[in-house]
Amino acid sequence: MQASEGIDAPQSIRPQHLSEVSFDSLPLHPALQSGLAALGYTHCTPIQAATLPLALQGQDLAGQAQTGTGKTAAFLLATMHQLLTQPRVGADGQPRAYMLAPTRELALQIYNDAVQLGAHTGLRMAVVYGGTGYESQRQTIAAGVDILIGTPGRLIDYFKQGVYVLKSVEVVVLDEADRMFDLGFIADIRYLLRRMPKPGARQNYLFSATLSHRVLELAYEHMNNPTRIEIEPEQVTAERVRQSLIHVANDDKLPLLVGLLRHYAHHASMTRTLVFVNTKRVSEEVEAALKANGYEGGVLSGDVPQNKRERLLSEFKLGKLPVLVATDVAARGLHIPDVTHVINYDLPQDAEDYVHRIGRTARAGASGDAISLCCETYVYSLPDIEKMIGMRIPQLPNTDELRAADYVEPPSLRRERGPRHRHGGGGGGGGDGGRRPQRGRSGGGGPHRPARPRA
User: Fold this and answer.
1) Residue from 240, 239, 246, 312 nearest 274 by CA
2) Overall number of domains in the chain
3) Residue 215, domain extent
4) Is residue 17 part of a domain?
5) Largest alpha-carbon pair distance within the chain?
6) CB burial class (10 A; 0-12, 13-18, 19+) of residue 194?
7) Total-model pTM
């Protein structure tokens, strides 16, 4: 959640990333105003300023906004206001508000934000997700809940068991709808929506990083003439993220990563670093290399047990773990404050994922660095990325000096690779490493094409 910034700042100072609309100018329920005041939030972000007035008038919304823009607070405030100002229409204890998220981390994040904002409301809230706490989550819902937050699979599971019903739902929120499609949840979501009151009998909010045709089709099918709100995707990206690029051979990526961590740590600017990779296997290689070279780093991938994921995220947020290696699915939707650097160890194969990744830094008006390693395997993603962000990513100079000359290769990688061989320079160099990877694969599967020359 990012409703404001600087709890201890004087009320007269409004950070530049906030709008001129103050929360006390909105007709929010007094309990919500009390919660905002207790948290030190004074002014709306642009997405909040655009959506809250309409939502408070009872309009359905289809909003385009990234995680970290304050959209979570926007739909939570609108939802709680509805529940606090309108009489219950169904049986007590059944969910009145229903919020779906594509990942466990995002569902838990929404819940934590809801608890803070709703501290003075008396509303009962619960979050459910797979991988942990099956019986305890079930009992929490059965005891009665006003706001139910969760991932589609676990929500459907409890619904089919009759733990709760959907006839009393007054507000529905779909967060990160585009990722719902990517992860194959849309059939589940339609199943749930069709068992609720008709769209005109409930309030509906949909938020997505992109309002693609398929997302809008879902919105118009299951919402009541939603108002479309678009905040330019990641305006923060161009304005406050210092983007850079390094062309590198596949075999040099790990030594370069270690050298980058040393370089920026030496300059005291790197305190919390997210390293993005495309596959679980590579995440394990990177973790092993970091440990062999004296760095503590955790891995956040889809099959990490939930209790370990929560521990890793907590340690990373607290600064106890300086480096976190993550895949896109695992990290999507996370709001981690004070990430100073994002390193794309692998260029993403989807240009939108690049925007999501580098948006993990430069939050709440801060600045940050995003460094991308452009290797032989994934160089072909670069043109689409640069087209999407509307700029050429500048190359870092003197990159040979950044490679760790004393890099220690982990024993596990030595056994797997055998003797190290160099395969030409970066930027789509020769050898089999220059093949274009297929979607979802780590390499191979396409004709060899030379890299696009760069001016």
Assistant:
1) 312
2) 2
3) 23-230
4) no
5) 71
6) exposed
7) 0.67
